[in-house]
Design a protein that fits this description.
The chain has 285 residues and is an alpha/beta fold. It folds into two domains: 81 residues, Arc Repressor Mutant, subunit A, CATH 1.10.10; 157 residues, Rossmann fold (3-Layer(aba) Sandwich). It has 13 helices and five strands. The protein has a five-stranded parallel beta sheet, with helices on both faces. α8 links the parallel β1 and β2. α2 crosses α3 and α8 packs parallel to α12.
């Protein structure tokens, strides 16, 4: 396996670390696969260092926090080990069966990493804002449109006034009749899509809450959003298609859906039962 970029950076800067930081660095270089699933306390115990040393170490290597270090290590581990979502796949000798296993591992890793990238407070606030909004608009283009459709369908089942579009002009028209208290969910893995950023700016003018479902990185969308639902940054921008990022997005949408359903309580069951009865009747006819 090729050495991970972050490990090379740690090795090249080893002389800059304090003695305590060196202990952290050496443990990470020896056990890179363990780090994404460890807590700060666990790493401190294994490396025989303090939790404060881990925080300082992360700042020294430029990743800011232990949470981000875990995301970076997991991303590079996944890309290095699996290498399934860039065009170098054409040079591999994989079989359909081996690719199935790699895709499964890739998707599973992204979903598990979301436990580290999703901000609990922003998630809970998103549940409240969506549940209370008179109008909810969802927008995504390309690979991000499919999760947007799934979100709209689930919110509609809950009786919420949700509309989805991949058409910029349609979305602008919709936003123009929205107001404070309404919500706009923008889905973009890169956080750089021009139409998405323009809609975020227009929503701000309308005092509409902007909820971004995007990768955890300082992208323009991340900075523009009121609430951030972050997935791990596990895919390259130049890729075969949206794979793990889409699965992580759908996972967060499922969690939003169930959280809102749970808060609505039994009052929503009437419409669910009517829908089920109608579908059952249609199957019998």
């Amino acid at each position: 396996m090729n050495e991970l970029r972050i490990l090379t950076k740690i090795k090249n800067n080893i002389s800059q670390f304090t003695e305590a930081e060196k202990k952290v660095a050496l443990y990470i270089m020896d056990h890179p696969n363990f780090i994404p699933t460890m807590t700060t306390k666990e790493l401190a115990r294994q490396a025989e260092a303090s939790e404060a040393s881990i925080v300082r170490f992360c700042k020294t290597i430029g990743v800011g926090s232990f949470k981000m270090l875990k995301v970076v290590l997991a991303k590079e581990n996944t890309v290095s080990e699996e290498n399934i979502n860039d065009f170098s796949l054409l040079q591999s000798k994989d079989t359909p069966s081996s690719l199935f296993h790699k895709v499964t591992y890739f998707n599973k890793s992204a979903i598990e990493l979301s436990l580290n990238t999703l901000d609990k407070k922003d998630f809970e606030l998103s549940v409240q804002r969506i549940k209370s909004a008179e109008k909810i608009a969802l927008f995504g283009v390309g690979g991000s449109y499919a999760p947007a459709i799934d979100a709209q369908y689930k919110l509609m089942k809950l009786g919420l006034n949700a509309t989805v579009s991949a058409d910029f002009h349609y979305a602008v028209s919709l936003l123009s009749v929205m107001k404070q208290g309404d919500a706009l969910m923008l889905i973009s893995t890169s956080g750089k899509t021009k139409e998405v950023l323009e809609l975020a700016a227009f929503a701000k003018e309308q005092k509409v809450t902007v909820i971004a479902l995007t990768a955890l990185k300082k992208s323009p969308l991340y900075k523009a959003a009121d609430l951030k639902l972050c997935i791990p940054d596990v895919e390259e921008e130049h890729r075969i298609g949206s794979i793990a990022s889409r699965m992580a997005q759908l996972n967060i949408i499922d969690a939003l859906y169930l959280s809102i359903f749970h808060q609505m309580g039994e009052g929503v069951l009437g419409s669910f039962n009517k829908s089920r009865e109608q579908v059952t009747k249609n199957k019998k006819s």
